[in-house]
């Protein structure tokens, strides 16, 4: 038996909006510790990892580990029927092929329930090893979204470079070039407006802007975004979800002088290596096999 009651129902709606264009079908994994999702996009270039911890729910009951396969577009359609202030309850019986969403208005004068068929999705849960990053940038999420949107009107890729001067976002296209530099800024009055850069060594990597723009759909979930960069690893774009969890997007860098429009991985993302190697070895190994 699974029963999850989330007072901030709008959080779940925002989570779905941020991932449904990237991932079509995915398994939601429920355990005693939380409600999670991990899935790759159809081109196997980007990976999304979501965690909503059990303590963030008003009521959380999960008698045994459960994996629910859902079409995210269909789930999003159902959640759109909930008001932004509604309390959302998710229920599923052991062995059932359906999941029920219940929406209660704050005054509890209106209760709606929607039943959705579950899917049998064959997916492997990938281990993502912890890693040390050369540079970590924390900046306002709305600022990052604006930069990605602006640059995509000029080019297809963005070069993110972190030096002691700051973090630079660059692109080039048929009409010209663009560079946007954000310097460290610790605004004491409004911490959410701060730009904080932790750098162990300079790093410069190229990414497809269409993926970055897709990631920024999670902007409504958090005031700030954390971008973790390392030359041997995929970038991690992380949005904290209130006090209860996070949504992380992983994207492999493009190799310079790559064919236009082609996405090439500088090395297999860590989750691919982790399937074949023990965690300690996957972390220690930094050179690609190919």
UniProtKB/TrEMBL annotation:
It is found in: Nucleus. Residues 270-290 have a biased composition (Basic and acidic residues). Its main location: nucleus. Belongs to the PCNA family. Keywords: DNA replication, DNA-binding, Nucleus. It comes from Persea americana. Residues 1-125 form the Proliferating cell nuclear antigen PCNA N-terminal domain. One of its GO terms (biological process) is leading strand elongation. The keyword Secreted does not apply. This is DNA sliding clamp PCNA. GO terms for cellular component: PCNA complex. It comes from the Eukaryota. One of its GO terms (molecular function) is DNA binding. Residues 127-254 form the Proliferating cell nuclear antigen PCNA C-terminal domain. Pfam families: PCNA_C, PCNA_N. Residues 259-290 are annotated as: Disordered. The keyword Nucleus applies.
């Amino acid at each position: 038996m699974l029963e999850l009651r989330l007072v901030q129902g709008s959080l779940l709606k925002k989570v779905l909006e941020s991932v449904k264009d990237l991932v079509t079908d995915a398994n939601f994994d429920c355990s005693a510790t939380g409600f999670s999702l991990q899935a790759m996009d159809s081109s196997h270039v980007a990976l999304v990892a979501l965690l909503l911890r059990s303590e963030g729910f008003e009521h959380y009951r999960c008698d045994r580990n459960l994996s629910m396969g859902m079409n995210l577009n269909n789930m999003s359609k159902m959640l759109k029927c909930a008001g932004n202030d509604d309390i959302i309850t998710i229920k599923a019986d052991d062995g059932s092929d359906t999941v029920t969403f219940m929406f209660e208005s704050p005054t509890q004068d209106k209760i709606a329930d929607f039943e959705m068929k579950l899917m049998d999705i064959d997916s492997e849960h990938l281990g993502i090893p912890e890693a040390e990053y050369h540079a970590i940038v924390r900046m306002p999420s709305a600022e990052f979204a604006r930069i990605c949107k602006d640059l995509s009107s000029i080019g297809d890729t963005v070069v993110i470079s972190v030096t002691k001067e700051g973090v630079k976002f660059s692109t080039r296209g048929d009409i010209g070039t663009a560079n946007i530099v954000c310097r460290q800024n610790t605004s004491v009055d409004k911490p959410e407006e701060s730009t904080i850069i932790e750098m162990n060594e300079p790093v410069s990597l190229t990414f497809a802007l269409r993926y970055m723009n897709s990631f920024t759909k999670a902007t409504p979930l958090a005031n700030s975004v954390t971008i973790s960069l390392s030359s041997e690893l995929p970038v991690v774009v992380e949005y904290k979800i209130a006090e209860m969890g996070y949504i992380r997007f992983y994207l492999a860098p493009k190799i310079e002088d790559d064919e236009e429009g082609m996405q090439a991985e500088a090395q297999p993302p860590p989750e691919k290596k982790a399937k074949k190697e023990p965690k300690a070895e996957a972390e220690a190994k930094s050179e690609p096999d190919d």
